[in-house]
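WARN no homologs supplied; continuing
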Amino acid sequence: MQQPKIKVLHIITRLILGGAQENTLLTVVGQQRSGRYDVVLLSGIDEGPEGTLHDQARAAGVNLVLVPWLVRPINPLMDVPALLLLYRFIKKGRFHIVHTHSSKAGILGRVAARMAGVPVVVHTLHSLVFHEYQSRFKNRLYIALKRLCAPLTDCYISVCDAVTQGALQQRIASPDRYVTVYSGIHLDPFLTISEQFTPELAKKRLGLDPARPVIGKVARLYHQKGHDLFLRAAARIAAEHPEAVFLLVGDGILRQALDQLARDLGIHDRVVFAGRVDPSEVPAYMRAMDVVVHTSIREGVARVIPQAYAVGVPVVALDLDGAPEVIEHGRTGFLIEPGSDTSVAEAVGTLLRSSQLRHEMAQRGRDIVLQKFPVDVMAEHINEVYVKLLARKGLVAPVAPRAMERAVL
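OK structure emitted
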């Protein structure tokens, strides 16, 4: 006799082109393809310059519900109607699991889920909303709200161990309610791009000189992504490697400011702003890069790091958040002290001087990525978490004792 499907609702504040949003969409797609779940994805609406994943979600057959009341900033005039709408939607849907993503959706979604009597509530921490780059008042507010929501949460899924540790340092729930599940990535387009393009051909395709080294960064043009540090390092790299070209893939609110900074640094003629590109094109852009630099000042695990390794490109990144869980300093790339454009430039220079070193580091990085980041690995770990939580509630048969690697609750 066929078992009834488990009804799951995922809630996220906005479905833009971004790491947390891609993680959420891949989770939903993986769950609905497994045949175990009846899945709905509910999102707020944000028409920012980054672009959205709405079309990709619909093309994948996702049951996508868009709610204009669910907005990112704190706004009581919108938040109260959003909470009531979520409550009614969840109550009517009779979901077994509500799985929230991002801070605003995490707060309103968890409150609404408990009001509606949902048996299992899960929240994914894609990064930490409290950090040193914003005011003490905001940090205290966010931490207080996170603590208030902790009793409503059966399990926290963190995208890296560093995120878990940061939350626990602020006394948000207890360690036994956390599990790390690395953010799954659809790796095939990145792993196979070398079959379509050599690095030289990928450069030509973008109008770049195939003989010149390309240092790239893939990220939306936003404050936390650290493009200013990248450009300052680029100026130092250009002084030592005058043939170097710098390729920025992504768009956002800082486009004009970064263009001006490149002019001020005297490297505007070497910096290529590719703008927003279709996600399907990202592997080809990364194939044109000799080194990928990621200078984000706040992230869980940046998806660009495993993507670069899958393509076959070494990475230089800041030594913070989840980067050390992917990059082995000196073996797969370089981890740099935050804020040091000199160190970034030195690391990139080391890689530019040795094609063999670049190849060896990228290959070691690819081996790590294949272990931790395939989508099916993420989906299965999340499924194990779900099943164990549902078993505790008596909604499914108890889980047979076995090692659950990263899903120990």
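The chain has two domains: 6-184+374-392, 188-372.
OK
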